[in-house]
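User: I'm putting together a small comparison set for a docking exercise, and I want a reference complex before I start. The sequence is below, and the ligand is C2E. Could you produce the 3D structure with the ligand included, as structure tokens?
Assistant: Of course. I'll restate your input first, then give the structure tokens for the complex.
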Amino acid sequence: MYKRQALDNHQFVLYYQPKVNIKTGMVKGVEALIRWQHPERGLLNPIEFLPIIENNPMMIEMGEWVIDSALTQISQWQAMGLNSPLNTSVNIAAVQLQQPDFTQRLTKLLAAHPDVEPHYLELEVLETSALEDVQHISTIMNACMALGVKFALDDFGTGYSSLTYLRRLPASLIKIDQTFVRDMLIDVDDLAIVEGVIALAKSFKRDVIAEGVETVEHGAALLQIGCELAQGYGIAKPMPASDIPRWISEWKPDISWQS
Ligand code: C2E
Ligand code: MG
Ligand code: MG
């Protein structure tokens, strides 16, 4: 199968997108996003290949490659002496998280990178996928948290967003889905959803980050309703790992965000 060759031939690469506090200017971390450096078609985004491998056993191998590469990257940034090591998140497919031996596999991956403290690794779980079997998922999440890794609920608001589930899934961070954020300036319903998720996160004592922050105006609106953490093209696009140190040293939040 030709996707297999992408893994064997080392054609997958991770890009990294900064996650920041737009009020304080602190860089909170980065999210690892997979790309396929295709020999003929160039750099491909996940939408162009993930759906095809999603239900294939290779998805699990790819997922482990992602975690392993992110851990290698964290240790490289650490060795370069980035002033504060970066919290790095990776996206985890439901099939991967629901593997009976996921915790053992994660333990092995962490053991292969003894210089990386596990709390620098965060796993992003799709809210929709997590909802399939909450009992099982929360057991796995708790076991992984015992290893030190953290969890985020990705694309929050697109699934059922049940309060019971939120209560039972021990994710420390909620990521507001970018579709709501994108339209919050022009659509009152989307704004209401964003406000609702922020309030929910506060009630449950979880951190909350807005995805898809494309403009300065989005940032300003988010600050007004109490969300300081943000990620999006308006801050930085996903970039090769080698660009991250310079980006961190140069980035400053927009002046209007600090007033
Ligand atoms: P996600 O985890 O919700 O990641 C955010 C996506 O939104 C990324 O797309 C990112 O490039 C894009 N994005 C960030 N800021 C903005 C913005 O301001 N505007 C717009 N329009 N888009 C923005 P990307 O990299 O194409 O990834 C798409 C999805 O593919 C991810 O959504 C995630 O669910 C999945 N994915 C990416 N990498 C991996 C991976 O390593 N493993 C797994 N299982 N899934 C992955
Ligand atoms: Mg994500
Ligand atoms: Mg998302």
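The longest helix spans residues 58-80. Residues 17, 33-34, 45-47, 50, 63, 66, 90-91, 93, 124, 154-155, 178, 211-214, 232-233, 238 surround C2E (ligand 1) (CB under 6 Å).
User: Thanks, that's exactly what I needed.
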